[in-house]
Prior knowledge:
CATH class of the largest domain in chain B: Alpha Beta
Largest interface: A-B, 31 and 31 residues
Low-confidence stretches of chain B: 1-31
CATH architecture of the largest domain in chain B: 3-Layer(aba) Sandwich
Number of helices of chain A: 14
CATH class of chain A: Mainly Alpha
CATH topology of chain A: ABC transporter involved in vitamin B12 uptake, BtuC
Number of helices of chain B: 11
Distance between the termini of chain B: 13 Å
Radius of gyration of chain A: 20 Å
Structural class of chain B: alpha/beta
Distance between the termini of chain A: 25 Å
Order of helices and strands of chain A: HHHHHEHEEHHHHEHHHH
Mean pLDDT of chain A: 89
Structural class of chain A: mainly alpha
Largest sheet of chain B: 6 strands, parallel
Helix content of chain A: over 70%
Helix content of chain B: 40-55%
Strand content of chain A: under 5%
Oligomer: heterodimer
Number of domains of chain B: 2
Shape of chain A: globular
Low-confidence stretches of chain A: none
Number of domains of chain A: 1
Number of strands of chain A: 4
Amino acid sequence: xxxxxxxxxxxxxxxxxxxxxxxxxxxxxxxxxxxxxxxxxxxxxxxxxxxxxxxxxxxxxxxxxxxxxxxxxxxxxxxxxxxxxxxxxxxxxxxxxxxxxxxxxxxxxxxxxxxxxxxxxxxxxxxxxxxxxxxxxxxxxxxxxxxxxxxxxxxxxxxxxxxxxxxxxxxxxxxxxxxxxxxxxxxxxxxxxxxxxxxxxxxxxxxxxxxxxxxxxxxxxxxxxxxxxxxxxxxxxxxxxxxxxxxxxxxxxxxxxxxxxxxxxxxxxxxxxxxxxxxxxxxxxxxxxxxxxxxxxxxxxxxxxxxxxxxxxxxxxxxxxxxx
Amino acid sequence: xxxxxxxxxxxxxxxxxxxxxxxxxxxxxxxxxxxxxxxxxxxxxxxxxxxxxxxxxxxxxxxxxxxxxxxxxxxxxxxxxxxxxxxxxxxxxxxxxxxxxxxxxxxxxxxxxxxxxxxxxxxxxxxxxxxxxxxxxxxxxxxxxxxxxxxxxxxxxxxxxxxxxxxxxxxxxxxxxxxxxxxxxxxxxxxxxxxxxxxxxxxxxxxxxxxxxxxxxxxxxxxxxxxxxxxxxxxxxxxxxxxxxxxxxxxxxxxxxxxxxxxxxxxxxxxxxxxxxxxxxxxxxxxxxxxxxxxxxxxxxxxxxxxxxxxxxxxxxxxxxxxxxxxxxxxxxxxxxx
Lengths: 324, 338
């Protein structure tokens, strides 16, 4: 772990202890387990978002993708209750992957700015949910029992969403650090010109990044819908901003090329703690938004300071060059 | 979507019509066949289908009334005006509308009145200039009081209670919470303190977390009131998922189709919302009263049949009554409707 990640980890630990001192129930295993389960989707979504941000892109459509893929999985469960659970989850993942590939294709091959493209698909995906479901929603009683039971199952003390998040995190770690395509993502974001000279195809890398994000959003779509027992057009509305915030807190540079799995996970955990601590601490709801915003800003500032490298620059021009 | 529900409704509707038919035939000579058009927001909406079933029930009870249940395919004011125009051309006696736009429907409402057709609204009001009366399903004080009464009944009047609302900025939520606190002042609730009010922002995930937080921050919590359909269903899910059934109960305003599983699981004892069948019934009863020449000025009383009487308030506003209570015995039946 880098110095910056150690700082963030230390802040998290101190924060946990401080909350625990004030409200001991927060450190009880039940609560930690609830918190990890609640945050598992954010862990995966933040990692997926990081992959896109690494290529100097951004994907604002992730939450809409999650909602649409979740709706597809829920509809499969409603109308074909005999389908094996694996296939229902697969339906969500494939939908998410397809939606992500649409984003990727437009960004990579038609050079549409990512923020414009994904802002557009955000609205399109949410609209499609209304069309596909006929403006209706799928309720808990209409989904299959196994469909809903899966995210609640506990294996070795942790719920299945947490285990899935652990497996996905390991896959991301291996992919980003030990595969050619994974390193290529850092290369195209860090220095596109140099990457091209090295023979890395930026378009392929971008298509890959958005596809990964889409597939993960699809998987999370199933988890979300099954966990909260309802699928409709407004689920996870505004969640894309939480996901991006987790990345930024975790030290992912919006400028591309910088980010790590450990940092992003810590960033997501940070937000997860804030989200679950505020209700337990009984902080006035009128203050909650302002407090969570201020805490996020504080984390980013501390993080940014920790990011400063202690090396000396002889020429002021060098600083400018380094930031390119 | 929901073919099963609709089939059931059609069957139920068909049965109601079949039962009503002999009554209409026998009283035809006497009542000179009054025709009431029930024009709702859009077709294919099971909530309004249930309202129409109530209207037909009322028509059968009175006798000599034919209900024409119609709407446009899309819930827009333009299409609804065309539908109302068509009914004016048919020279119906009365029109009951759930308006797609309060102001856009005023001219067509006036046009109907000019031709001697009585117009009233329910569910969603036409502005006062375009109708005689509007029937609201319930009122703020009744909605607030009902929810406190429900949780008191479930808990036997003892134990800590919290409120899980939508957003802290929502006017209707806040006025319902004020009404609850007003009811809470009564001495019978002295052993049932309100310990917290939290806000789930009408998002399933946040409401779920707020519910988990409430239980942890208040180990003695026994009941939760959630005056929002999203809050009550997410809170109920958190109770079931957290293994808190029997320890913590939730009540509030919910939809039977969303609450069915949680009621059967025991996370929710009772909840309330207006009953669309009663709503259609009461509206039709009022319209029949108006067609018989009843006064609709402020302070006048109108009959809602077996639902009692309602008093016309300012701007022709009438109130049907307190929200209808759902529990284990009726939730499955209503879950098919809405």
